[in-house]
Amino acid sequence: MFKPDPNGYVQGSAYPDHKMVFIKIPNAQYPEAVQATIAHELGHMMGAGHSCAGALMAGANQNPISYHVTALDAAAIIQGQFD
Asked: What is the residue range of the signal peptide feature (predicted)?
């Protein structure tokens, strides 16, 4: 989840077994948050798990969350951190 403003979150959920991704967009003021949420959920669809703060694949409570793929994400995949 990304909190672009006090009035709402951009939220996403991925269900790889069912080949579905859901994205909740309360407003369009923060396109980078929408783009990052889609990229994050697509990461889950490809098998990546949550990694550490500062990464695109960081969990919702791991701040800061990156808006793009980082070296931390690559390292997590190389180390086999999958859900």
From this structure: none
Prediction pTM value: 0.76
Residue entry with tokens 């990229």: 39
Task: Evaluate whether 77 touches 50 at the Cβ level (below 8 Å).
Answer: no
Alpha-carbon gap, residue 10 to 77, rounded angstroms: 24
pLDDT digits (tens, 9 = 90+) for 64-75: 788 888 998 888
CA 45, CA 59: separation in Å to the nearest integer? Answer: 15
CA–CA dist 82, 51 (Å, integer): 9
CB count in 10 Å sphere of residue 16 = 13
Counting every residue written for the chain, the total comes to: 83
Q: Which residues pair with 51 in a beta bridge?
A: 58
